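User: Fold both of these, please.

Assistant: Here is the first one.
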Amino acid sequence: MTHFIFMLTHHDVTVKNALEIFEEVKNTGLECIGCKNIGLPEDELKKLVKSIKDAGMMSFMEIVTYYRKETLEALRKADELEIDYLIGGMPFFTDTVMDVIKKEKLGVKYFPYVGGIVDHPCVLKGSINYIIEDAKRTVNLGVAGINLLAYRHREEDPHLLLREFIKKIKIPTIVAGDINSYERIREVTGLGYWGFTIGGAIIEKKLVPRGTIADQVKAVLNEVKRSR
């Protein structure tokens, strides 16, 4: 089953009213919800994560930084808050993060980015072959899964990348970034990816133009059910 992960984010930052939005969507049937490591004050982030846990949902935190120190701070924060899944993080820090996770026996499951990552919001670069080879290297480091920015590739065909990647990489993979249409939801679900994230498209109400944020979430959940 493909997991739909609603990210309480826009432009790669947690939205200021994340707690309010969470309250709106928590009874929609949603099982997975997340935020970035940036955007909320510490006290609000703690309240948000506690609310997610109290609702029985799986929690996700996505790392958005190009710096080692901030990456490790995000890992510490995820461990302290008992986040279920830490996703994102630059490929060149994956070995460092995994060393800490293994050495300290942390419980968080890590799904890093693969390929070349640039800009903010993050964009994917590199040939399809390079991305797949980098994913193989990443798998060998002992990660729990991978976070793939397929639709954020500006040079390669994202549809070909998605098809080739899932043939070669047999580890849970989340497709993240720019999933902003039912066609893309169907593509990712139909190919059998472990999960996908949507943030901005729901915050901007692109999927149900005159609907609430809860309506957007319900529409995605229904699309996933139909696509199984």
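And the second sequence with its predicted structure:
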Amino acid sequence: MGRIVAFLCFALSLSSCFKEPDFALIPVIDFDSINSQIRLDQFAGLTKDSVVVSVHFEDGDGDLGYNEAQKEQAQLSDDFNYLIKPFRKKNGVFTEFEPLIPLSGYFPSLKIDEKPGPIEGMLSYTMEFYHAFSPKFDTLKFEIQLKDSSGNLSNVTESEEIVLNRISAL
């Protein structure tokens, strides 16, 4: 019994040594990675590139993401919280383009308890590009920005470039 009490006292003393991070209330993001996989769409029977972009985030009050009610409201006005600007490389120069379907979207609340407090982590977001609607060897990059549920916009981070539609069939 004495060992358990001693262990608990030791554990509590260690936990008091860790200071809660002091992040800004406005989210801060940094590009981490981008990758793609060629897949077959089972419904349409078409090949596509499934692109995953990952960013590291920090937020002081932890209000990143929408709960279900916030998402329903945001969908009425396309008030996305994961903002993507795509750029296509042509003749060595990247130019922003407007995709047929918006790439921006929604991500759920990142705090399970929804209590205010700092959070940090990695957020991965998937986009799909059908080969039938993309040029061969299409080189893209993306600007990414997050919006918290208070409406604060993070800084903008830029992905590395990625080449899509490298094959015409599986």
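The radius of gyration is 21 Å.
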